[in-house]
Write a structure and sequence with these properties.
heterodimer; A: 245 residues; mainly alpha; 2 domains; 10 helices; B: 591 residues; alpha+beta; FAD/NAD(P)-binding domain; 7-stranded mixed β-sheet; 6-stranded antiparallel β-sheet; 14 helices; globular; gluconate 2-dehydrogenase (acceptor) activity (chain A); oxidoreductase (chain A); TAT_signal (chain A); Gluconate_2DH_su3 (chain A); Gluconate 2-dehydrogenase gamma chain (chain A)
């Protein structure tokens, strides 16, 4: 087959394979237009909590935590001249949905004591806290720190002050009472990147905005005819459920 | 439970090979796998398997360490801490073991590395080997193993380019490796295509005077049927290789290449969710009577057997021997004992090169786990170590196995980890970068060893295995030397930026950062029961009806990836069982 033909055949295959996917999963897929997401992001103002990309109601996070989460991920992966950021990607929804998985309870990890919270970083994670607990304690501590420093909660600060606060948490220079600030920041950043780049079926990367940013083709997963070509891969991403960007 | 002729503990490559060989010999074989059944369908079905979050990030195919992990400490006087999250290494779980999620780099061995101590003493003198370095000879030669390397490649459907076949040069100028030992037959498949990153490496390595060759890959370059009748389709470079089940039937795995044949065999039974607690020994501890395991319902079950094969992952083999009382535990203070001795790893350094968006499109989402271009100019003893004062060598390569965005975004040095600058760099560089490794050999030392932890337990109340491990001066000197040699290749590519990751002076083992899953030793093979746990046929010196195949038998870590040698040694051991042991059960080598 010629190189020109193969991508079309690929698309044919993906289109045909859609018939095999249960209808219920398609109903759950976000079909919002990427344009509407970009329009809403263009109006984004760091002084106001960003509007969620959808009307998702959180299951784990409280209203206060949900406000913090939106404000924080909007700084970690901002909406800017390069395009949509964490908010348009649905990162808060992704993180909340993850809180219902075994990961969030720490049950993928060895969690028997005794615990040594002062271990050197070379020994990896040594805390007793699950990801859920890290968020509960960490968000409260972060908001508390912002209030002490600036008289406002994190989400009420301007973008530059929010960035400065996040840098303090990242560096570990800030002392939270019940957990290291750095542990909280590291988890938040990791989950934010997961929500920006995961397959959309997990609730993040809506409209594949993360994949489009870097030209990752998603679930195409057939590059036999592209291995030896030193050129830009021209086809937009597809998701596991068959959505096309 | 009805007595089996042989019970196999762990159904990865070594367990599957043993099961096939022993049923061929007419034995009734029961294989016990502690994880679940898993196979191309359903775990590897397209498109569900193309899911980075579920597979690599949430560790779907790896060992469930909530139930059992290892503890780690740097020195003999430290208190070990449990490895709570998988990091530096990723052992497998379930049917196929790590052979399901591996990449497929399928090497033989450099013959020098099988007689490491003898070779270094002969060429450089006894004093060249540093105090406390406990490297040994395997007790088996490349010539003895060659037929088994050859057969394993045919079972795996390996793609590659030979250098010499029976002394005749066939690979010069075609991608063969001039440092490779002689072969009896060619690779079953020609080498795979080379990615742009591998092509850049090949060109740059040639320019600086090195000798690039095609990596031998257990990813198929074309359709293939192996000696067991198992069929494979050509790899399409989907980029979801390491950490995933291959949906294309292209990456060799025990499930794809051996299990279909075993399923036809009425003498074979595979029991999953069977967690072996210990090997049972008779009262004088000279004979195994079978094993005890916990089934899916939590019941303890005894499986009697005449022959016990420990073919779990490297450190699980060692732990089972310690829990069962097979062989004398190693004591680093006296240097006596053998089980747990010579625990060794891999000594990695990495360089990433970043190109301008108009210079090169490396498209790293394209990939095949075993594919790439390498040089062996500084591997094994292919160069004079005399002036440099360290033991060990390292192949260098570009091995574009496929990188995905959650874990694979890698930006030039100095880029922040978040914010608009991070985002812009991710957009500008993700498809314009490549990564090369110095995949270093790692030596064994008197105080890098394995024993049972005094504090932490598994979900069944048994002690965890404890690793006492740290990098030594020799390792740090070697890796710094290697990275300088590899940097010449990187610089010859004229990149916009380079990022060099190499251990500096005084570096300690970091359990949180992935290195490789190439762990070695602890139940090492050799010629003397005082210094090895198993003989040259992988038979326990102390309990002769126990055989222990796997990288646990390596007295030190290789420059190459271990799976090819694990497979060859397992076939070699199985042949000794079939042709010698079954006729006259007892020690195959007299101590």
């Amino acid at each position: 087959m010629s190189n020109e033909d193969s991508p079309n055949e690929r698309r044919d295959f993906l289109r045909k394979s859609l018939t095999l996917i249960p209808v219920v999963t398609l109903a759950g897929a976000s079909l919002a237009s990427p344009l509407s997401a970009q329009e809403s992001s263009a109006k984004h103002d760091a002084n106001k909590p960003a509007a969620p990309a959808s009307h998702y109601e959180p299951s784990y996070f409280t209203a206060e935590e949900w406000t913090f989460l939106h404000a924080a991920v909007a700084r970690l992966i901002p909406t800017d001249e390069r395009g949509p950021g964490a908010i348009e990607a649905g990162v808060p929804e992704y993180i909340d949905r993850q809180m219902g998985t075994s990961y969030a309870n720490g049950s993928l990890w060895y969690m028997q004591g005794p615990f040594n919270a002062n271990a050197a970083p070379e020994f990896g994670y040594q805390l007793k806290l699950s990801p859920k607990e890290v968020y509960r304690l960490g968000i409260a501590a972060a908001d508390n720190w912002c209030h002490q420093q600036h008289g406002k909660l994190f989400a009420q600060l301007d973008a530059a002050t929010q960035d400065a606060a996040l840098k303090q948490f990242e560096s570990g220079k800030v002392a939270f009472e019940q957990l290291p600030a750095k542990t909280f920041f590291t988890q938040l950043l990791q989950n934010t990147k997961e929500g920006f780049f995961c397959d959309p079926m997990h609730g993040g990367n809506k409209n594949m905005v993360g994949w489009k940013l870097i030209n990752f083709p998603g679930a195409r997963a057939d590059f036999m005819d592209w291995v030896e070509r030193d050129e830009r891969y021209p086809f937009p991403p597809v998701s596991i459920r068959g959505e096309r960007a | 439970m009805k007595k089996a002729d042989a019970v196999i503990v762990g159904f990865g490559w070594a367990g599957a090979i043993m099961a096939k060989e022993l049923t061929e010999a007419g034995l009734n074989v029961v294989a016990l796998e502690r994880g679940p059944m898993q196979d191309t369908y359903p775990e590897g079905s397209y498109p569900q398997v193309i899911d980075e979050l579920t597979y690599n990030i949430r560790r779907k195919l790896f060992q469930d360490i909530s139930k059992e992990t290892v503890t780690i400490r740097h020195g003999v006087n430290d208190v070990a801490l449990p490895n709570r999250q998988l990091g530096a290494f990723l052992p497998g779980n379930g049917v196929g073991g790590a052979g399901v999620h591996w990449s497929g780099v399928h090497f033989r061995v450099d013959p020098v590395e099988l007689r490491m101590r003898s070779h270094y003493e002969e060429r450089y003198g006894k004093k060249f080997i540093p105090e406390g370095m406990t490297i040994q000879d395997f007790g088996v030669t490349y010539e003895e193993l060659e037929p088994y390397f050859d057969f394993a490649e045919k079972v795996f459907g390996t793609s590659g380019t030979a250098w010499t076949i029976n002394g005749k040069n066939v690979g010069e100028g075609k991608g063969g490796n001039p440092f490779a030992p002689d072969r009896s037959t060619d690779f079953p498949l020609v080498a795979q295509k080379n990615t742009i990153s591998a092509q850049l490496f090949q060109k740059a390595a040639t320019e600086v005077g090195y000798h690039p060759y095609n990596l031998p890959s257990a990813n198929t370059s074309g359709p293939y049927t192996n000696p067991y009748g198992a069929q494979m389709g050509p790899c399409n470079f989907c980029g979801f290789c390491s950490g995933y089940v291959c949906y294309m039937y292209s990456k060799a795995s025990p499930n794809l290449n051996i299990l279909p044949a075993l399923k036809q065999e009425p003498k074979f039974e595979l029991r999953t969710n069977a967690y072996v607690l210990r090997v049972n020994l008779d009262s004088d501890k000279r004979r195994a009577t079978g094993v005890t395991y916990v089934d899916a319902q939590g019941q303890e079950i005894e499986q009697p057997a005449d022959l016990v094969i420990l073919s779990a992952f490297q450190f699980h083999n060692v732990r089972l021997m310690l829990l069962s009382g097979i062989g004398k535990p190693y004591d680093p203070k006296t240097g006596e004992g053998v089980v747990g001795k010579n625990f060794a790893y891999q000594n990695m350094a990495t360089i990433k090169a970043y190109f301008d968006k108009d210079a090169h499109h490396t498209n790293p989402f394209i990939g095949a786990g075993g594919n790439g271009v390498a040089v062996d100019d500084f591997n094994a003893d292919n160069f004079d170590h005399g002036p440099h004062g360290f033991v060990g060598g390292s192949p260098f390569w570009v091995n574009q196995a496929g990188t995905r965005p959650i874990a694979g975004i890698n930006n030039p040095p100095g880029t922040p980890e978040w914010g608009s600058q991070w985002k812009a760099a991710a957009a500008d560089y993700y498809t314009h970068q490549l990564s090369m490794d110095a995949h270093g050999a790692h030596q064994s030392y008197r105080d890098n060893y394995l024993d049972l932890d005094p504090t932490y337990k598994d979900a069944y109340g048994q002690p965890l295995l404890r690793m006492t491990f740290d990098w030594k001066e020799n390792d740090l000197r070697m890796t710094q030397f290697m990275v300088e040699k590899m940097k010449k290749i990187a610089e010859a590519m004229n990149p916009k930026a380079l990022k060099v990751s190499v251990k500096g002076a005084g570096s300690h083992f970091n359990t949180a950062s992935y290195q490789t899953t190439h762990l070695n030793g602890g139940a090492i093979m050799g010629t003397d029961p005082k210094t090895s746990a198993v003989n040259k046929y992988l038979q326990s010196w102390d309990v002769p009806n126990v055989f222990v195949p796997g990288a646990s038998a390596f007295p030190q870590g290789l420059g190459y990836n271990p799976t090819g040698l694990v497979a060859a040694l397992t076939y070699w051991s199985a042949r000794a069982i079939r042709e010698q042991y079954l006729k006259n059960p007892g020690p195959l080598v007299q101590a």
